[in-house]
Design a protein that fits this description.
alpha+beta; Alpha-Beta Plaits
Amino acid sequence: MSRGEKVILEIVEFTVVDDGAFAALNDRFQEDVAYQSPGLMRRTVARGDDGTWVDVRMWSDDSAVRMEGDAAVRSAYGASVNVTATRVFRPL
């Protein structure tokens, strides 16, 4: 990103159904879905001390803000997480 570039932040909070299987599934989601989605610039996932996870996505514009790519991986990922909140933040 260049200085002054405006991005849209999407923050998804969730819990994981199976911690043991999540890392490998998240890696597949990253490659086969996230980075196949037009407009997605960056994505990072982190786990909080309380077991809650966060998926921070940086989008280049409003046209996307949705994941595309491998439907089977999207479905498996969706079944492996319980989303508790999704928030979108736009630049001033």
